[in-house]
Amino acid sequence: MVPINYYIILSAILFTLGALGVLVRRNALIIFMSVELMLNAANLAMVAFSSVLKSFSGQIFVFFVIAVAAAEVAVGLALIVEIFKSKRSIDVDQMNSMKG
Amino acid sequence: MQLSEAVNTGFAFLAPWLVFSPLIGLLINLLAGDWFMRHAWGEKAVGAVASLASGAAFVISVLLAYTVSASHGEVIRWKLAEWIHIGTLNLDWTFRVDSLSTTMMLVVSGVGTLIHIYAIGYMHEDVRFKNDVGRFRRFFLFLNLFIAMMMILVSGDSYLMLFVGWEGVGLCSFLLIGFWYELDTLGRPSWANSNAAKKAFITNRVGDFGFLIAAFLMFWHLGNSFQFDQVFEAAKTAPPGIIVAITLFMLIGVAGKSAQIPLYVWLPDAMAGPTPVSALIHAATMVTAGVYLVTRSAELYMLVPNAQYIVALTGAITALFAATIAVGQYDIKKVLAYSTISQLGFMVAAVGMGAFAAGMFHLITHAFFKALLFLSAGSVILGVERGHHHLAHGQHKEKHGKGKVKHAFRKGGVKKEERVQEDHGQEVFDPGDMRNMGGLRKTMPVTFWLYIIGTLALAGIVPFAGFWSKDEILLDASLHFPVIYILLSVAAFLTAFYMGRQIWMVFFGEARSAAAAHAEESPKVMTVPLMVLAVLSVLGGALNLPFEGFHNLGHWLEYTLHEVEGLPLDYQVAGISTVLALLALVAAWFIYGRNPLKTGQIDPLKRPLGFLFTGMENKWFVDEIYQALILTPYEKISQFLADVIDWRFWHDWFHEKVIAGTYNWVSEIALNRYADQKGIDAFANGLGSVTQWLSAAARKVQNGFVRSYALSVLFGVVLILGYLILK
Amino acid sequence: MTIDLILFLVLALVAIATAIGMLMSRNAIYSALFLVLNFVTVAVFYLLLGAPFIAMSQVTVYAGAIMVLFLFVIMLLGAESLPQAEVLPWQRPFAIALSVILVGEAAYLLITRARPAGDVIQPGQTANSMDNLRELGMVLFNQYLLPFEITSVLLLVAMVGAIVLIRKEKRVR
Fold first, then answer.
1. Which DSSP string do the residues of B269-330 spell out, in sequence order?
2. Which of B75, B120, B678, C3 could form a disulfide with B47 if both were Cys (CB 3.0 to 4.6 A apart)?
């Protein structure tokens, strides 16, 4: 008899940890992984709600999120590789051409 | 006095045309004159238009006089237009048709018309002697203007309207004296003529000042009006001191306009104008305006016998003084000018003594014979000038062997030879100097007889006109004012003497110059008006014969003046004056006629009279005294005021240092440095600096780091959530 | 204290620990491995919540494919730790603060505003996983067909995009 609130709080904590990771880490890959973590936290919340409301919409949506996350990772990593080729580093602080 | 408002009896409605017809003549000549002058008949046309305009004024005067007589002397006041209606002052352009004004109108327009006709001939030759034919038209414009102004003067119903005419004739006098403004009387380029015109105007101005003060006093104390009837009505109850002041200030005006002491000095200089001007303005009409003024103001003067006596004394002294100067003059016109001043003195003395009718009578007769004399003198001058030019062309012919030169002075057209600028070399010939004349009796007979008639009239020989009028004045003087009687008698003696001197110097003896020897008579257009004037000079006495039933002028003026003493002829006074006149003529013959002057001989009176004659010759140095006492200090003061006060003090110091300096200080130091630079500029620049500082600070947000952008996103999310919570 | 609750708490702890481990580890490989563990834990959660298919796809796709990709790239680019120069000094404390506030806000909202929605289902209630799968499939291919097809297009685009990005730009001279 786990109340859904618990799942939601867990999801919130995981999400916050993911956000923190995006903000604090400088390695682009770690940041990317933190983003995946955030997505995951959201998925958890959705599945929890789907379970409580006895509806399949949550699960279907999670299915799509997973698919999209996969696509996103593919492209994103390709971009990171490209950036590494030109900048020889994956430190996001090095990518400050938008300064000013 | 019967006052009938706008009684349109008979021809009174014609009154404004007295002024309008000369003005119409003026306009026609002004607009069409140039076109006229392009034709051969041009001069005749211009002269005819002007003379007809003046003649029309004469005809109207006759009709108006008839109207007055038909209504037995009723005063007709014909209003033309409203003029000033301010507060208590109500003044209109009103024409006063009564016996006094019609008398003046007749004299002015009658003699004026005759002089217009004479001037056609005179100016025809004069413009050719001075080489400026185009100026012919201008002369007649000014003459017509003068007639118009004089008409306003004599027919005005108020002192102010009279003054308009007074000023107007002063202006015309100025314009006509300075007609040849760039020359002097002998035709040389000079300031002389324009200076004479200026002198006339300025001296008249001094007189006008007196007149104006009198007018202001009248307005202030005598009923807030300038209209004659109202003033005279109020004068009856006014304090006598005021009346004395008014009359004496008016006397200053009279002294200016009618050339009495001390303001007579302009009249001899006014001879610089052409002779018709001298005849019309300075003998017959304008100078009589003062006498007319006193006669018109008779009711005022009768209230203050003391002031009257001063007027009479002024007139008498002037008469004697001017007569003495006339004895020593050599210019034919100057003698006549001083004679005019002297005769005006007679008139002023007459009206000063209360003998208004006698004064007016003398005014009329004097207009006749003085105009006759002046115009004849003009004829003499032109005759001698003709002789001079005749000789010059004769020499010219001898030098260059030209064909016979036609004398083309009589009718139209100007031959080329006359147009050549005469080169007289160093000698300038003065055709008016009596020492260059002599023996003109033979070459100019008509002029000679006319001159004789004029002289006899002036000298006062019975039965010519001058005898009757002068005798009446002397009679009145002998009865009441012995001092004046003596002064006037001596003046009468001298009058006959200097006229005799003139006759013998000019017409008898041998010609003292070649020009006089070749003098020629004047054309009919000039001599015919003179004959008319001569007839009037002979018969003019009939106007006011001092016999019972014959005091025509006296009765006529009684309508206006109310107090006319028609004195019968006193054989004693008449006898004494005739004897004096004859004695004077004999004396003149004795000195000048028995042994006629030769060329270059000095005046026979010079040695016996010594310094007296020098004084008489130099007009008692009055002009020089005026120059030293008044004019030079005045010039010095005005120079001082202009240079030192106005320029050095006011402009250089005050304006430059004080005003400009203060202004510059204010704008430069106070406003520019402090207010503008330190104040406003600092503020404006400060705004810019603050903005720069703010933007420099804000720019740091854009640091290019993705992480900080993400942080700001999270920050925003937190804020929004917080807001939603707090809601 | 039922067994569900204990299980939940343990698994929650593991999930949070691995997440923190992923964050704080200096070595990228270690971070990736920690994340794999996290994903597996979440998959177990899915199972507990009665979504076996999702759990399996989580493990297969997320932990299996995505994390492998990550590992490939990490190994490709080098997992060395980055130089220590911290350019944004206030970033970390500020981020931590904000995160704490965020959690606090979420908790506040959840506790005070959320309606009691009930409990999650028991793990054993869905007896037959095949039933779950069949029903899921029914819903997926009937109601959500369009998103399904679009997702497949999306995957295609991602593949093409990845290849395009890697391709060397030879043509530009």
1. HGGGS-HHHHHIIIIISGGGHHHHHHHHTHHHHHH-HHHHHHHHHHHHHHHHHHHHHHHT--
2. B120
